[in-house]
Amino acid sequence: MSVKVIQRDTFEVIRAAINKTVDLIKPTYGPASNKVIIAKVTHGMVVDDGVQIARDLELEDPAEHAVMKVVRETAIKTNDRVGDGTTGALIILQAIFDEIAKIAHRDGRKIEKELKAAFEQCKAQLLKTAKPVKTKEELLKVALVSFDNEKIAELIAEAWHTLGADGVLTVDRSGTMETVVELTDGIFINRGYVSPYMITNPQRMEGVIEKPYILFTDYRLTEANDVINIMNQLAAKQILNLVIIAENIEQNALATLIINKIQGKFNAIAINAPAGDNRILMLEDMAIMTGGKVFSEKKGDKLEAATIADLGRADRFIARRTESVIIGPRGKKTDVTKCIAD
Prior knowledge:
Elements: H1 10-25, E1 36-39, E2 44-47, H2 50-56, H3 62-81, H4 86-102, H5 108-129, H6 136-147, H7 150-163, E3 186-189, E4 207-210, E5 213-217, E6 220-221, H8 225-236, E7 241-246, E8 248-249, H9 251-262, E9 267-272, H10 279-290, E10 294-295, E11 312-319, E12 324-329, H11 333-341
Parallel strand pairs: 5-7, 5-10, 6-8, 7-9
Antiparallel strand pairs: 1-2, 3-12, 4-11, 5-11, 11-12
């Protein structure tokens, strides 16, 4: 439903929406942050997470609420890309708006150009003055700010110190009273799910499949038959967990996966293959790591010839909006060792 602003200055609507949103969230900033209580239907939540507050916030004025939904995207996108700093991002947004308000009479395109130039200057200065985190003690200080729990912060610091900057850390329920860190092999992919219908955990905006079978291909999948063959083979064995990593998945092929997912007949997640000239090499590396095969259109492979034996295996697959992780790939150690050596 569209909202019209009647007898009220649009600029003031935007200002009010930003101030009401950010002024509420701002006290949660920093290591000595305050809390905000969110009233749910059955219970209350005490939080100091900027993005959580922004997601649950509702403004009474319809026009201001429409603006607020745009404002909270700042926090959501910051959380998706970085995982922290959501309150800080909103504070910066408010400050930028306050400065623009002083020169609102000027040409908008010129202001936009100046903002982009200032952004590059700020980025360069941050890179120049940033202090690299090198020791476990420094990691612990950062973790304490984010988690406000010394035991959890120690575990996180230990995990990152062991993994290094290129590691990937995922969080899951342990099923016990203990909180522990487990190290396992995995593959990070800078591609996320192709459709939000593949999300299984709405709170964390993740799609998760346990013990998946993984199809690797550089084919562009558009027709239902492109996916039905392998789905039927799996279903005949009562295997209902499939991950597809392909050149692209769209149209009827994507619709087939989504419909079966919604109806509870099949649990499938599809992501696009990594981009670039080395796409086929990256697919082959992932296939070796998981014990699967790449069905390459460029090499003349027939996708309809794919069988269950050609699929990769893993302990778990997690897909997010912009990235995915294959956890516990089950390829043969000899093949993996040879691949690394080559």
